[in-house]
Amino acid sequence: MSALEKVGAFLVKMVERPADRAVEGLLLSMSPYDIADYLALSAETVSHTLTDLGQSGAIKLMDMRRVRTVDRGALEQACGAGVAA
Fold first, then answer.
1. What residue segments make up the domains of the chain, in order of their start?
2. How far apart (Å, rounded) are the C-alpha atoms in residues 70 and 31?
3. In whole angstroms, what is the distance from residue 43 CA to residue 36 CA?
4. Which residues of the chain have pLDDT under 50?
5. pTM, 2 dp
6. What is the structure's pLDDT at 34?
7. Interior angle at CA 52, CA 46 and CA 56, nearest 5
């Protein structure tokens, strides 16, 4: 599974958790460093992937812990097979 698939699947799972929703999007309960450890990726890879998802229009990064899902379909497409896992 690619980094994009891992990060995308992680975000899709987090969007589905109502406890993690912020007023303007998803409130991540983990720092990017913790997400990197959880997904067995480097922090730089997670940061780069979040930036790529932001530039693609799938998400909008509000700050280091808040993400707004702009286009959930694009986010799910980005993570491909990772959503079904």
1. 3-75
2. 21
3. 5
4. 81-85
5. 0.80
6. 94
7. 145
